[in-house]
Write the structure tokens for this entry.
Amino acid sequence: MKIQAAPLPTLPKVPHNKGPLEVSIDFVGPARQDTNLGQIPKDFYTSRGRTGSKHTEFPNAQSPIRDGREIVRPQPVLGADGAPVLVASSKQIKAQADSALKHGIIGALIGAGAGLFLGAFPAIATGSGAVWGGAIAGGAALGGGIGALSVANDRVRLEWREQPILTHRLRGYTERVSEDSHTQKDTFGNGSHTVTDGYWHRFTPDVGAKSLGTYMEPMVVHYDARSGAIRRVEGELTANES
């Protein structure tokens, strides 16, 4: 079921290199209400354990857990006929192309870290501080250049896009156990070793999303100025169940 109440108005254009476009756009979309889907275990810490992950499924998508962490998702409000209820909505949009400066700095930091790691081996072998410095500087320059180039041709436009009206269910959860440790200097010599303090048990929900229909919503679309290919759409929804 595709829902479209009226012809869609023309959306404003986003100027390039003139700061963000901030605008409020009205549309007709589904009424939603935050709903508790059920509970999963709370994160906890143990002194002993083993790293790894485990997935648990709930029978009939009904959580038997009590005193856990509530999982809340926006659910569509349904009418007496079982169809999603539509309401007048307004969306505040801030549209701006990705910053080459920002991504260049992030890339430089990542590159510097990689340069530090790769430069460690020859620097240790030669005992040369210049090798350390050269590796870090080279990695930063390369990473910064790659980061800036990756978004140099990024442009944005506003576009009406078909979005699913999603209803959610809690299917289960995944438990991941990770080691909590610190580095401690050796009693003798200049070396160090890793000491395990304990284990974190962290839980993430497995939420299924099924589409009950679609509607049209204004979205911010990032695309490549040269090829016109879409890079990403901000906030676009997808169903993971049929």
User: Anything to note?
Assistant: The chain has one domain: 2-96+156-233. Residues 2-96+156-233 form one domain. The first helix runs from residue 100 to 126.
